[in-house]
Every structure is written in C-alpha cells, then in structure tokens.
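subagent[fold] <- orchestrator: predict structure for attached chain, return tokens only, no commentary.
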Amino acid sequence: MSKTNDKFEKKRLRSSNITVIISISLVLFLLGIFGLIVINAQSYAEHLKRELKIEAYFKSVEDPKLKSKELDLQKSYIDSLKLKYSFVESTKYISKEEAAKIAKKDLGTDGSDFFEESIFPASVEITLNPSAIKSVEQIDSINKVLSKNTIIDEVKSDKEAMVTIYQSINKITFWIMIFAAIFLVIVVILINNSIRLKIYAKRFSIKTMQLVGARRRFIIKPFIIEGAILGFFAALISIIGLGLLWYLLATKVGLVLWNPSYTLLIIVLITIGVIIAIFSTLFAAWRYLRLKTDQLY
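subagent[fold] -> orchestrator:
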C-alpha cells in the first residue's frame, strides 16, 4: 500500500512539474515573441534613420594655385568627419562627374546641354549614426556645425521627412514601452499562479515538516531550488520554440536570421523565468508556513 502511494505521489509530482514547465514556457514564449517584435521594430527604425542623409556641398576653388589641391582638401575634410563627430556613421564622396551623372539620371540632363561647364558641385553624403541622434533638433545643430567649415558651400537635408519619421518612431516607441510594461505584469501574474498551484499541492508536506521542528529556511530551500530549475528549463523550451519560429519566418520572408540583441533577449527570458519562479515559490511556501493547520483545508 505504501509503495502504491509513493508511486502515485511521484507520478503526481512529475505531472505537476511538467504542467508548471509547460505553462511557464508558454508565457515566456509569448513574451519572447513580443521581444522579437520590439527588437525588429527598433532595427527597422534605425534603418529608416540611416536612410535620412545629410549632403554637404563643397565650394569650387577659384584660386589657380589651390585648384590642384582641391581634391586633397575635400578628401582630408571627409576623413576628419568620422574622427571629429560621433554622429557620423559613414561618408560617401560624390565628385562633380558623379554629380553630373546623377543629375542626368534624375533630370534627364547633365548641364552640358545648357552650360559650358557642369554646374553640379562635388559633395559628401553623410549617413548619420542612429544611436547618436535622438531628436530632429540635433539635425539643425549638425547642419550648422558642418556649414562652419570654409570649404563647405551649403548643407542640405530633408528636414520634413526627418521630422515625420522621428515623430512616428517616438510615438511607436512610447506605445511599445507601455504594452511591454503591461505584458510583463501579466507574465509575472501567470507564472506566479502556476507556481502557487504547485506549492498548494504540497501544503500539507510543508506544514508536516514545520510541525516536526524543521526550520523555515530548511523547508523552503528545496522548493526554491526546484522552482529555479523549473523556471530555467521552461525558459530553454521557450527559447528553442522562438528560435524555430523565427527561423521559419525569417527564411520565408527573407529577414536577417541573427541580431546581436537576440543574445540580450535570451538572457532576459532565462532571468525572468528563474527569478519569478524563485520569488513565487518563496512567497507561496512562506504563506503556507504562516497558516495554521486547520486553515490548510
């Protein structure tokens, strides 16, 4: 009879552990999907910011003595941009000849149809560093900084497009943070409930150990360790599921398979799974230790 009860108890315990792992992994899986959305939305926002470029046009050198050094001066200025300014991610030099070809493509003329010489000046196209640009107001400051150099004639940027994109990104980021906070609270509640149900099934064992003189720390410790292990395995299952889902989606749609931010997402999922499981176990076990025996029923 005793062996039968032990087998039943072990089977029920195993079933309870599997249920907790599945429920926590499903919750973390949903949280991971939300994390993927946030990361890829951020990546797309950075991509949009990189598409907004600033173009600085060089002055034409009139002095015959400096004419031969014109290209060297322009290249020297371009090389100094990334060294001096953190907002510069990359630069592209556009010569007068290249500018004429671009104009011919865009306008259907290279200027030689109307003028003896090309009217299109050499320029440098500057791609901004998304992490260094937080607002449109910084663009105006950058334009002023670039205009101060004596070899720069004019600085142009599509400010209207920049304002629209930055405002949209700020709104999207704000609502994403709101939903992330709400979703995290829901995750904590769901994981906490799963752990509490598991501890509830062992409430009589907890009380029995307390009645025979076991210290509270001694009683709670194995439950905390078990909770941490369950949380860890649940996080691993959710990460594997997310990996498979993302692989199928990325290969089908043509998205990038790996983003450095995914490492942080993996760490966050494991941390949340383990920490919430530990604290939920601690609070649930402590609650039953404080109850009287007749309150357990």
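orchestrator: received. Logging for downstream: The beta strands are 53-58, 88-94, 123-128, 152-157. The chain has nine helices and four strands.
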